[in-house]
Write a structure and sequence with these properties.
Elements: E1 3-9, H1 13-23, E2 31-38, E3 42-49, H2 52-58, E4 69-75, E5 90-91, E6 97-105, H3 108-117, H4 128-142, H5 145-155, E7 158-166, E8 173-178, E9 183-186, E10 190-194, E11 206-209, E12 215-218, E13 223-226, E14 232-233, E15 238-239, H6 255-261, H7 263-271, E16 275-276, E17 279-280, H8 289-293, E18 297-302, H9 304-321, E19 325-329, H10 330-333, E20 344-350, H11 356-367, E21 371-376, H12 382-386, E22 389-392, H13 405-425, H14 430-451, H15 455-464, E23 469-474, H16 477-493, E24 496-501, E25 518-523, H17 529-541, E26 545-551, H18 555-559, E27 564-568, H19 576-594
Parallel strand pairs: 18-19, 18-20, 20-21, 21-22, 23-24, 23-25, 25-26, 26-27
Antiparallel strand pairs: 1-4, 1-10, 2-3, 2-4, 5-6, 6-7, 7-8, 8-12, 9-10, 9-11, 11-15, 12-13, 13-14, 16-17
The structure holds fructose -6-phosphate.
Length: 612
């Protein structure tokens, strides 16, 4: 949700800001803007609705703006429609302060009304402009920017990552953060702020993560950080080891396609370090068998695709642990007065580690005494830092808005955690444990082999892309996997789609099946294959066109009922979704391609959802 960047240093700021914004455009893309300051030209603000390219064209790749100090923003609108005026940066009434904001100021109306009564004129509908105007107000009172920012932060409620420049401070960039990510980058030729490390990794890998309530003052040669009482704080610095090329398209038509193809490697990187001598080793999660036995309830909490990983894990963990596992949507959990206590284990899953609902749910669980374990992709993200324990998925930077490789790595990591807990509880037979360990290590190779020929999926996409409504049906793990297949399709191709537990169809939804309706029949879960075939027959009998996904072993049998079949290699049943989901991702991708959709940046969406 919105990306912000700032630079102060020895080079020209505008091209650096544009480049960083391009790498963060997945965070929001309905308008963009920059503010750059120079001695001779003062504060230059340019902003426009639409994609970043509009802004880049408007300022000729940055050449029109002069100055070594600047801030930039790419927006995902919350308050006020996406237009030129509501685009950031916002400038205070006297034109001296420019500001970019990611987050939501919850009490903005009350502050706005107060300032309006004092005679301040607002130009936009945004909550963010209120911060700029309030800052001018307090700055006029105290004539000290750090003090003024401190006063503003005490007045505003909600979430924010802020980048601020002020004409009276020609060499300083000021930043503040609460509940929205913000990274400080220590460069050779200047210093940076950014919502996401991918925006600045080209310039520096030396970073610090700002904590809630902190304010930073950056110059070309220094970064000073203060707490909410304006007392200086020492920041721990980290080296980012992500490969720069991982965040680039590298000749692929879309990030999503590249990231789908990166899955074997991402799975390998996530699994290999965690298996030693045939056993699961989770170095950063060290519950003893006694502590695990003492757990009375297990919760998995997440949003969107990460929640779908939770749905698969519920089936797998209950089978392995013989314990009830509750999966909750973070946005529901946080307000449900959940039955969580100090004997609960709460697993939160998040690619970005910044999803506000997931973070709030985790905080609620912690407040009630639960032990929290975060499964996160972005190192140093807020959820990763606040959880009691964190296990990283090593998917690398994921840029396409629709998740693929992060989902796959979450899935295998959750399988490993489930196996680890089952081992501690003694609820898994040694032979099954060994079989899963063996198969999980073979996943990358099997997937790589299958990915060598994706053309059949492309063919089916070209055959079915003009359907208006598509149903994904399956039982057990296939149902959970279908939830993800359906979400992928709807988010990038805009086709209406539903995922259904196939046994449930006859209780209502089957009335929607009519001649020509496309049903994607997911029959990869071997233990229920025969039961599932009956459901396929039921929809066929109502005239559905059936595209089936199954395993090589069932290809022939499935072919007798379905109109078309895609088959993936077999693996241990609990791991089958790791192979099955990939054709579904590709199907969504190719359908969206056929329909001419903007695959990496689907409408209305953003990658990191830092608003409620
Ligand atoms: C869908 C997708 C979203 C995310 C969801 C949670 O392709 O990416 O549904 O899974 O917004 O995001 P994270 O995992 O970052 O918490």
């Amino acid at each position: 949700m919105c990306g912000i960047i700032g630079f102060v240093g020895r080079g020209q700021a505008a091209p650096i800001l544009l480049d960083g914004l391009e790498r963060m455009e997945y965070r929001g893309y309905d308008s963009a803007g920059v503010a750059v300051r120079s001695e001779s030209r003062g504060l230059q603000v340019r902003k426009t609705k639409g994609r970043l390219k509009n802004l880049a064209d408007m300022i000729h790749g940055g050449a029109d703006l002069e100055g070594c100090l600047g801030i930039g923003h790419t927006r995902w609108a919350t308050h006020g429609e996406p237009n030129d005026i509501n685009a950031h940066p916002h400038v205070s009434e006297n034109g001296q302060i420019a500001l970019v904001h990611n987050g939501i100021i919850e009490n903005y109306l009350e502050i706005k009304e107060h300032l309006q009564k004092l005679g301040v004129t607002f130009t936009s509908d945004t909550d963010s402009e209120v911060v700029a105007q309030l800052l001018e107000y307090h700055y006029n009172e105290c004539h000290n920017m750090l003090e003024a920012v401190g006063r503003v932060l005490r007045r505003i409620q909600g979430s924010y990552a802020l980048g601020i420049i002020c004409s009276d401070y020609p060499n300083a960039l000021i930043a503040a953060r609460k509940d929205s990510p913000l990274i400080l980058g220590y460069g050779e030729d200047g210093n940076f702020i950014a919502s996401d490390v991918t925006a600045i990794i080209k310039h520096t890998r030396d970073v610090a993560y700002m904590d809630d309530g902190e304010i930073a003052v950056l110059t070309a040669d220094s970064i000073d950080v203060f707490d909410d009482e304006l007392v200086p704080v020492e920041k721990e610095r980290h080296q980012v080891d992500w490969d720069v090329t991982a965040a680039e398209k590298g000749g692929y038509p879309h990030f999503m396609f590249k990231e789908i193809l990166e899955q074997p490697e991402a799975i390998r990187k996530t699994v290999s370090p965690r298996i030693r001598d045939g056993r699961v080793v989770l170095d950063t999660f060290s519950l003893t068998a006694e502590q695990v036995r003492d757990i009375s309830r297990i919760f998995i909490i997440a949003c969107g695709s990460s929640y779908h990983v939770g749905m698969v894990s519920k089936y797998n963990w209950e089978r392995l642990l013989r314990r009830p596992v509750q999966v909750d949507l973070a946005s529901e959990f946080r307000y449900s007065d959940p039955l969580v206590d100090d004997r609960s284990l709460v697993i939160v899953i998040s690619q970005s580690g910044e999803t506000l609902d997931t973070m709030a749910a985790m905080r609620e669980a912690k407040r009630r005494g639960a032990r929290t374990l975060a499964v996160v992709n972005v190192v140093g993200s807020s959820i990763a830092r606040e959880a009691d324990d964190v296990l990283y998925t090593w998917a690398g930077p994921e840029i396409a808005v629709a998740t693929t490789k992060a989902y796959s790595t979450q899935l295998v990591l959750m399988d490993l955690i489930g196996l680890y807990l089952a081992d501690l509880l003694g609820t898994v037979e040694q032979s099954e444990y060994d079989a899963i360990i063996q198969e999980v290590q073979l996943l990358p190779e099997k997937l790589q082999g299958w990915l060598a020929d994706v053309h059949n999926v492309q063919y089916f996409a070209s055959r079915y892309f003009n359907h208006n409504s598509i149903f994904f049906i399956g039982r057990n793990l296939d149902y959970a996997m279908g939830l993800e297949g359906s979400l992928k399709l709807k988010e990038i191709s805009y086709i209406h789609s539903e995922a259904y537990a196939s046994g449930e169809l006859k209780h209502g939804t089957i009335s929607l099946i009519e001649p020509g309706t496309l049903v994607v029949a997911l029959g990869t879960y071997a233990p229920l294959f025969d039961k599932f075939i009956s459901n396929v027959v039921e929809v066929k009998a109502r005239g559905a066109e059936v595209l089936a996904l199954t395993t090589e072993g069932f290809r022939e049998k499935m072919g007798k009922t379905a109109d078309a079949v895609i088959a993936v290699p077999e693996t241990h049943p609990i791991l089958q979704p790791s192979l099955g989901v990939v054709p579904l991702q590709l199907f969504a991708y190719y359908v969206a391609l056929q329909r001419g959709c903007d695959i990496d940046k689907p409408r209305n969406l953003a990658k990191s959802v830092t608003v409620e």
